[in-house]
Write a structure and sequence with these properties.
This protein has a single domain, classed as Four Helix Bundle (Hemerythrin (Met), subunit A) (Up-down Bundle), CATH 1.20.120.1760. The protein is 74% helix and 4% strand. It is built from 6 helices and 2 strands; from the N terminus they run H-E-E-H-H-H-H-H. A two-stranded antiparallel sheet has the order 1-2. A hairpin with a 2-residue loop joins strand 1 and strand 2. The two termini are 34 Å apart. It is a multi-pass membrane protein.
């Protein structure tokens, strides 16, 4: 197994640690930041999430730079991304930081696009992510990070940065999903 695929696997292995930090009451205490209380386990979970998100960039960079793109990597990388984002958004619902209806829309788009990619792969086609999709991912990751951090450092300004980023992520998710299906609808029409 090459290094980019090992990096991707490390992202997958970080997910259970992330989940444990947010679901088990570890009673590590909390910090009071302005009017906000930030549990230390949420802070550590945010750091784990940032690390895991960073591995997505690192494995892709390494695979392209050294021409180590493999079929295993093409499978593992998007799966790891979806697992990480899905776990984070579902846990944010449980924590009361994200509305369920919004997360359902975001995750529905992710599964629909994954389904389209599977159909395309069956036809021997690879559907690349668009720049709009990359912006969507960026705002999804940023929204998760700020929600996990209880809007720190914007909590000093009493500004709900995590919520603002979450709604921007929602808008970009819908627009990029519609764009993706319009550009690639021929795959569905031509599939056998």
């Amino acid at each position: 197994m090459n290094i980019p695929n090992r990096i991707t696997l490390s992202r997958i292995f970080l997910i259970p640690i992330f989940i444990i930090l947010l679901t088990i009451d570890l009673d590590w205490g909390s910090w009071t930041i302005g009017a906000t209380t930030l549990p230390i386990d949420h802070f550590v979970a945010a750091l784990i999430f940032i690390l895991a998100s960073g591995t997505d960039w690192l494995d892709g960079y390494y695979a392209r730079k050294y021409n180590l793109v493999t079929n295993l990597g093409k499978f593992l990388d998007p799966m790891a991304d979806k697992l990480l984002v899905t776990a984070a958004y579902v846990l944010l619902i449980e924590l009361g930081s994200a509305p369920a209806w919004l997360v359902i829309i975001i995750l529905s788009r992710e599964f629909a696009v994954t389904g389209l990619r599977i159909v395309a792969a069956g036809e021997g086609l690879v559907l690349a992510a668009s720049p709009l999709g990359k912006w969507k991912t960026t705002f999804q990751l940023l929204s998760i990070i700020f929600l996990l951090l209880h809007n720190y450092p914007f909590s000093y300004l009493d500004f709900p940065m995590g919520q603002v980023l979450l709604y921007i992520a929602l808008i970009l998710t819908v627009i990029s999903g519609v764009d993706y299906f319009i550009k690639n609808w021929h795959v569905m029409k031509e599939s056998k």
